[in-house]
Amino acid sequence: MTITRRLFWEDPYRREFEATVIESTDYAGQPAVVLDVTCFYPTSGGQPHDVGTLNGIAVCEVLEEGGRILHILERPLAEGTAVHGAIDWPRRFDHMQQHSGQHLLSQAFERLFDAETVSFHLGEEACTIDVTMADLDLAQVSQVEALVNGVIFENRPISAREYAEEEIGALGLRKAPTVHGRIRIVEVEGFDRCACGGTHVRTTGEIGLVHIRRWEKRRSQTRVEFLCGGRAQRDYLRLEALCREAANRLSVGVGELPEAIVRLQEALQQSGREAQALRKQLLEREVALLALEAEPIPGGRLLCRLLADYDAAAMRYIAQGLAAQGGIVALLAVREPSAQVCFVRSADFEADMVALFREAAGPYGGRGGGQPHAAQGGGMRADDLPAILARARALLLGETG
Ligand SMILES: [Zn+2]
Q: Which residues surround the ion ligand 1 when the cut-off is CB under 5 Å?
């Protein structure tokens, strides 16, 4: 089997190359080729594959299978074809920034907290590492960021070299290699050494910036989400735009946002308390007015009313207020938030409100209950409320069977 020469290791900055198709095959129903040389990085070690073109034909996926690098194509290419290859450079450079940043981050967690990186994921939008720390707080995250970005500002060289398996014991690697034979070691000068087959930038300065965006506990480990380089820059711009918009809405500077939000919350609470006090006053006035409208009946007064402007909570408040007056029965109903009725009486008035409710509302589908002095229920149609009230009134006055 011919082994493909990996140009992405020799020069990760190379974007174009000339090659020959040495095998034309298919993979999961799609045409695929193996080349004698390639710049296309296959998915491995947490880093996603490159995309690009071979003679203008799109390379949608690149993967390694049994030591062969398979380029999955949109259209087939015949064996022996000479091809001009080009990778999507912005995508690759982004991967190089993220992957290089991950090396620094993993070393920083190890140095500061003796925490090992057990997995790495380079996602479309963000990257994550899982570190062996049960807890992580903001102060620790700041420490990690300070160390990593300090190494970035020092612009240290990053290099890759192959070693024989027996040589690597002396190298002080952060992570023991999972492969055998010749082992590729990536070194951030004076800071980190680890076995890695990915693509990296040539100096730490090209990583630009590493920012830890969030983290979450996962059993005994912590998943740390981070952004490097262009992703960190775009995130910064996004956050700045959000802050500016929020500040503009509150007519304050960005730095005054937290204070302005506290003021807003306090004002809202104050308004809420005032609204509640006014509502109480309004309902008390309503109770007084309704009591005046109650009709005289044997043993007291009766108020039978569909409350058009109130909801169920207000109805309960009004009912209690009326019942407290003495010598009164109130048969009330509301449509909001659903059709409900409330029958109450003063302590000094003889009548069973639960029985009255069942007899009046039951035939209309009303369900509910309560105590002899107060019953409440729903389940009926709003259109039937006037009929239910009329029936309850007639029953109470002994006008029906
Ligand atoms: Zn790497």
A: 99, 196, 198
